[in-house]
Amino acid sequence: MELRQLEYFLAVVEHGGIGGASAALGVAQPTVSQALRALEREVGVQLFHRIGRGMVPSAAGRTLVGSTRQIMRDVAAVDDALSAAGDEPTGRVEILASPFIDGGAVIDLVAGFRARHPGVTVRLGDLRVETQASAMIEEGRCEFVITHLPTVGDDLDMIVLGEQEFWLVCPPGTEVPDGPIPIADLPRIPMIFVPRGGSVAEEIESAIRESGVRLPIAVLSDHREQRLPMVLAGIGATLLERRIAESVADRAVVRPVSPRFARTFAMIFDPGGLSVAGQAFADVARSMAAQRAVQE
Q: Coiled-coil intervals in this record (predicted)?
């Protein structure tokens, strides 16, 4: 088995076929096809199902994806280490974070790590479905996932990073009483939600339904970052992380809700599959979490 074959295998997985993989790799399509056939002969199983012009991994192919991604990360880390001076970690740490997570906490963690290890690049991606957090680690798509709890596989470790509370943010001029707003007394104004798929969004929506309140929905938006501008434009109300809500209290009507919406979030990872850079990142996260616990 050659490293080049594994590189081509991953490219086909990620681009859905020979054509996309060859374009991304900058090699001819027959070269990719030959490498895949050779790899299938060597492992003795079919790695892909051919569907029209596309290709999807077989069960055996899906099993190979995670370990192959880890191999490619390890090879990149070795190359970086050989080209770097001293014992300072190099390479890249790959993280997927839920868009519902407090961005400030993630930024603080990345900043703290980069201050200690400037030779490592951090790649931060979007975890669109929190229920897939463990699968992202197991499939080797990243080394770390930052998501709300509970969501951790049996063989995964976690470091608790904090807790975030969600507050009601209404358009300017909305008449609501002072203090926490009971869910059953939420103002009868159109709401802005994200489609289902994020555990926090579903929990909030379920709590509102269970309270007997039926709020009209003005917008279902995949663009989570557009919810606040929509509120400020008067389209409807929404529930946002407390830090963000308080930052616009001079431009919108902001209230806590009752019962309190608060979720613990953590970083999960496979301790046995970390690169040198990944281990350094985990160490920094533990150190920062311990410091925060002492301060609290």
A: none
Closest CA to 75 of 137, 143, 7: 7
Q: CA 152, CA 269: separation in Å to the nearest integer?
A: 9
Q: Distance between CA 146 and CA 7 in Å, rounded?
A: 27
Name the H helices within the chain.
3-15, 18-25, 29-43, 59-83, 103-116, 133-138, 199-210, 227-232, 242-247, 276-295
Q: Is the pLDDT of residue 79 over 70?
A: no
pLDDT digits (tens, 9 = 90+) for 247-272: 999 999 999 988 888 888 999 998 88
Question: 172: Cβ–Cβ under 8 A, 6 or more apart, which residues?
Answer: 232, 234, 251, 252, 253
Q: Enumerate domains of the chain plus CATH numbers.
A: 3-65 (1.10.10.10), 76-162+265-294 (3.40.190.10), 163-262 (3.40.190.10)
Strands 91-97 and 120-126: parallel
Read off the tokens for 213.
């309140």
C-alpha distances (whole Å) from 174 to each of 55, 68, 178, 251 are 53, 54, 12, 11
